[in-house]
Specification:
- The chain is α/β, with parallel strands linked by helices and about 375 residues long.
- The strands form two sheets. It has a four-stranded mixed beta sheet, with helices on both faces. Strands 4-5 form a two-stranded antiparallel ribbon.
- The termini are far apart.
- The relative contact order is 0.07.
- InterPro entries: Cyt_c_assmbl_TM_dom, Thioredoxin-like_sf.
- This is Disulfide bond formation protein DsbD.
- Pfam families: DsbD_TM (PF02683), Thioredoxin_7 (PF13899).
Length: about 375
């Protein structure tokens, strides 16, 4: 980036080229994840227009400001001059970057199972950062490069109020409040030690679990439960397909394949917003055997299960096995993905049900799958 910036001082088209190259290099750390996500959707989903529109929006957002200033240079004079206000903006964005850094660190923590940033720890950090940012905007905290704040302007006050409100909104989450609007960002609720909200689901599911597993031949989940445990909402989920099929044969229930991931934001939103609906939760608990397959789980496969797929890649981890199964069986690499099959692995629906927070639609889909399973048994 520094070398490209040095060459941008040259005149002519070459200087313009290196100026643009410098912008690309510097901004790639921010635009890279967005572009990567959009390109992954092209191969992972059947929706082709969404990635195209996403790339168009991203490129337009980056290009329009520079184009406007190039066509109308006088607009540059109307921009506010740098000063104390700009330093305040940088400090506030610094707090925002710290909060986002915790989010990305949380994803790594979840994948590797370190338990350094469980939900309550994550919430405490975000609450403290929110309070500090609000106090800074009110002038209660001052850093070395800040100018004296003689009074608090109206915009500054409203920003402080918004940040304080956000911090207060997070506080009930320390006792297990679902915080549904943030469920895709926060660590999953099953990482929290003290969770009053999960407790009600576990108490409510105790009787149902007892009745559904009263057949002593039904084995509880065993494989990979040393790391994958505490399923959401008190549900019983298996993490190995063969183990789930064995349980489904005994219970005479259809199988719901839940392709998910530790760092899958939409998976957490579906669980918090759709699965938690009382009617949906009852159907999942009583009518289906759930097999949750984590695409980013790095647990090593037993040596006897290690294999080489059609592309010649050696499959050594559970996550690799799940991704290979999802892509080869369903032609998808997106999460969440909910597919339904019987105990002979015959599909009960051709619908590739992904992220859709419509509760009624999900209930109808469950009913349709259950009805087809019942009709095939006759």
């Amino acid at each position: 980036a520094n070398k490209a910036d040095e060459k941008s001082s040259k005149g002519g088209l070459l200087g313009i080229f290196f100026m643009a190259l410098t912008l690309v290099i510097v901004s790639f750390s921010c635009t890279g994840p967005i572009v990567g996500t959009l390109l992954a959707q092209v191969s992972g989903t059947s929706a082709k227009m969404a990635p195209v529109l996403g790339m168009l929006g991203l490129s337009a957002g980056l290009a329009i400001p520079f184009s406007l200033f190039a066509f109308f240079p006088s607009l540059l004079k109307a921009l506010p001059k740098s000063g104390g206000w700009l330093n305040s903006v940088k400090v506030v964005f610094g707090f925002v970057e710290l909060a986002l850094a915790m989010k990305f660190l949380s994803n790594v923590d979840l994948i590797y199972g370190w338990h350094l940033l469980d939900r309550e720890i994550f919430l405490v950090i975000w609450i403290v950062l929110s309070l500090l940012a609000g106090m800074y905007l009110l002038g209660k905290i001052k850093f070395s490069h800040d100018s004296d704040l003689t009074y608090v302007s109206i915009p500054r006050l409203f920003f402080a109020i918004a940040i304080f409100c956000f911090g207060v909104y997070l506080i009930p989450g320390l006792w297990g409040a679902p915080l549904k609007s943030m469920s895709g960002i926060l660590p999953p609720t099953n990482t929290q030690d003290f969770n009053l909200n999960e407790l009600q689901y576990k108490i409510g599911s105790a009787g149902a679990s007892k009745s559904s597993t009263e057949n002593t031949a039904v084995q509880p989940p065993k494989l990979y439960t040393d790391k994958l445990h505490d399923a959401p909402l008190g549900l019983t989920t298996y993490y190995d397909l063969d183990e789930g099929i064995a349980a489904a044969k005994i219970l005479n229930k259809p199988i719901m394949l839940d392709f998910t991931g530790h760092s899958c934001a939409n998976c957490r939103k579906m669980e918090a917003e759709v699965w938690s609906n009382p009617e949906v939760l009852e159907k999942l608990r009583k009518d289906f055997v759930i097999v949750s397959l984590y695409v980013d789980e790095n647990s090593d496969l037993p040596s006897a299960q290690v294999y080489t797929n059609k592309e010649g890649k050696e499959i050594t981890t559970l996550g690799d096995k799940v991704k290979d199964f999802e892509s080869s069986k369903f032609g998808m690499l997106s999460q969440p993905l909910y597919m339904f099959m019987d105990t002979d692995q015959n599909m009960l629906s051709d619908v590739k049900y992904g992220y859709d927070p419509n509760i009624e639609k999900f209930k109808q889909h469950l009913d349709t799958v259950k009805a087809k399973y019942e009709s095939e048994k006759k």
